[in-house]
């Protein structure tokens, strides 16, 4: 929050989301993309999940993406939302897309009390298309 800003944090966060710069994540293994707020920080995960989070002023928000093998029982595309089983104080919004034998999902986890602040992030997850890109090996050589 800017120094000297006296607005309640939820209000400042929501208004800030309307002007936020978005950063693009490109997965070099599966060649798909998604956008996240540029002030979110990448979180290291050992389970193959890509996560970006924001943890400040008592707010913990995580945007994560995962790729798994597709299940023939799943729909080709779905959106789910609700309360986390582990904590009713948190909600989730998930968009899954099945393509080429893989299930790509983008999920947002956020405090229930800040639901009205998350509309821009929820919209980003809802309208995510799981765009794929062609990578040049020199771009992502390790």
Describe this structure in words.
The chain is mainly beta and 142 residues long. It has one domain: Jelly Rolls (Sandwich). The chain contains 3 helices and 8 strands. The strands form 2 sheets. Strands 3-4-5-8-7-6 form a 6-stranded antiparallel beta sheet, with helices on one face. Strands 1-2 form a two-stranded antiparallel sheet. The model has no long low-confidence stretch (mean pLDDT 87).
Largest sheet: 6 strands, antiparallel
Secondary structure: number of strands? 8
Residue stretches low in confidence (pLDDT < 50, at least 5 long) are none
Helix residue percentage:
10-25%
Oligomeric form of this entry?
Answer: single chain
> What is the CATH domain class?
Mainly Beta
The overall number of domains is 1
Strand content of the residues, in percent? 35-45%
CATH topology: Jelly Rolls
CATH architecture: Sandwich
How many separate helices?
3
Please state the structural category: mainly beta
Overall mean pLDDT stands at 87
Q: What's the order of the H and E elements? A: HEEEEEEEEHH
Task: Report the C-alpha radius of gyration, rounded.
Answer: 16 Å
What keywords describe this structure?
3 helices; 142 residues; six-stranded antiparallel β-sheet; two-stranded antiparallel ribbon; Jelly Rolls; 8 strands; mainly beta; single chain
Quick gist of this model?
This protein has 3 helices and 8 strands. The protein has 142 residues and is mainly beta.
């Amino acid at each position: 929050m800017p120094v000297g800003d006296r607005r309640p944090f939820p209000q400042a966060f929501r208004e800030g989301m309307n002007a936020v710069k978005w950063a693009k994540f490109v997965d070099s293994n599966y060649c798909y993309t998604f956008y996240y707020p540029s002030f979110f920080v990448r979180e290291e995960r050992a389970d193959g999940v890509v996560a970006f989070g924001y943890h400040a002023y008592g707010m913990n928000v995580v945007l994560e993406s995962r790729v798994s093998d597709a299940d023939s029982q799943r729909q080709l595309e779905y959106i789910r939302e609700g309360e986390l089983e582990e904590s009713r104080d948190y909600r989730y919004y998930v968009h899954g897309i099945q393509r080429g034998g893989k299930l790509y999902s983008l999920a947002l986890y956020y405090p229930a009390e800040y639901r009205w602040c998350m509309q821009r992030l929820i919209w980003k997850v809802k309208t995510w298309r799981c765009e794929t890109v062609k990578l040049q090996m020199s771009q992502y050589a390790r």
